[in-house]
Amino acid sequence: MTDLLRALRRNRLALAGGIILCILTIVAIFGPLLTPSDPFLARMPLRLRPPSCTNLFGTDSLGRDVLSRVIHGSRVSLKSGFLVVCISSVVGIFLGVAAGYSAKATDAILMRFVDFLLAFPSLLLAILIVAILGPGLNNAILAVSIAYIGPVARLARGVTIKVKGYEFVEAARASGGGRCHIVLRHIMPNILSPLIVQIALNLGGAIVDIAGLSFIGLGARPPVPEWGAMLASGRRYIRIAWWLTTFPGIAIMASVLACVFIGDGVREILDPKYRS
């Protein structure tokens, strides 16, 4: 992991993505200190004002400052994306490692469940789950997390099967090491690097899917300033107030590009063909 981090600092693509993601994360953490006004405060006399020195991103249909809402929305969108990645990664890695290291019967049962998840596009599966559970941001996070378990589990299984055949794993098994010891001490450290690529790409996809669910009314509900919900509320004014959809869209694009840059950078570092 130390060599990977050192190589990431030398990779311009990954470095650019890391800088963008760090900036967005800092904005999300210190959002209340950076917002120029209350993102929930409605001021009808100031409705639909274009970007100006007073309101850098303009105001929305209720006179609320769009910049403040985009900054506050970063807390909602990034937190949702990180929660999705954490839940799906923990469950997916557990299922993948358990399937890859266990007997064929256990492997077959776990992988059929994963195949069922992979049979649906992630957003379509998330919409189906939210339709069953009911709309809301928490249900949307849970639904997208379930939808992203499959890719992580499939990758974790593949690299586990590869690593468990290495000589040092066989030596640990021959010396009497238990399954938990071998998995935690010898397998997990050697499968994390390729999983980082998938997790980084999943973060960008999760942000888009959460925004998509909010856009169609199944995620964050008004007046929560989530980026997808802001796009949905601003689309009716897109002809006369372009800023209502432009700035939340740029925020989504920047966060997704950052995750893609990090994922591609890690892949270039790990793949000898890319390095050559």
Total count of strands: 0
The CATH architecture can be given as Orthogonal Bundle
What is the count of DSSP helices, taking H or I runs of 4+ residues? 13
Q: How confident is the prediction overall: mean pLDDT?
A: 87
Q: Mind telling me the CATH superfamily name?
A: MetI-like
CATH fold assignment: MetI-like fold
Report the principal-axis shape.
elongated
* SS content category: mainly alpha
Which percent range describes the beta-strand content? Answer: under 5%
Low-confidence stretches at least 5 residues in length (pLDDT < 50)?
A: none
Order of helices and strands: HHHHHHHHHHHHH
Number of domains: 1
* Rg of Cα set: 22 Å
Helicity, as a percent range: over 70%
Distance between the termini: 21 Å
Largest sheet: none
Overall CATH class: Mainly Alpha
